[in-house]
Design goal:
Number of domains: 1
Largest sheet: 6 strands, mixed
CATH topology: Dna Topoisomerase Vi A Subunit, Chain: A, domain 2
Number of helices: 7
CATH architecture: 3-Layer(aba) Sandwich
Helix content: 25-40%
Shape: globular
Strand order of the largest sheet: 4-1-7-6-8-9
Strand content: 15-25%
Distance between the termini: 35 Å
Amino acid sequence: MGLFASPKGWIVGSFELKSPSGSVRYNPTSGEPLGVSISAEWLSASTCPVLESAPDAMLESRATGPATFSSDAQFIVVVEKEGIYARLAEDCFFDKVPCIVVTGKGVPDLATRACVRVLSSTLSIPVLGLCDCNPYGLGVLMAYRQGGKLTTVSSHLYSSDIRWLGLRPSQVAKISKDLPDVVFQELSSR
């Protein structure tokens, strides 16, 4: 039928990812234009603190976690829309500005949120969220910041201190008189 499954999250940028065996899974010159998919292996890494004083059980689960990575990135850009992510990846935005670009293709899954958390805490770099200036876009941003309804007990394992990068309603109000009516859409009750 020509149907293919697509992973939920993708990551590309200024980093190198190695498998536990030491073989390189990804680096910016690996020829993977969209980067690599974010898989469930990031979930076990999110439960392991970076501190060496972690209980033995956590250290054991770290060994089954994701591959090791190194990076010179200055920040992580989390992109709501897959199309914008693809454009940034194709244009090698990360070559111009050392960064890591991540997308969850809308509302992110646990693995994508865990990946962002692990990268930001391990590399000690800020996370910037590029999302639409509408309730859905802000909902995506809040999913990265606070987790979801079902992960309230362990939301700290899947949340990051993300900062909003993009147009704000106050900025729209300032320029609205200069924009044609066709660019606006009325909010519905939904």
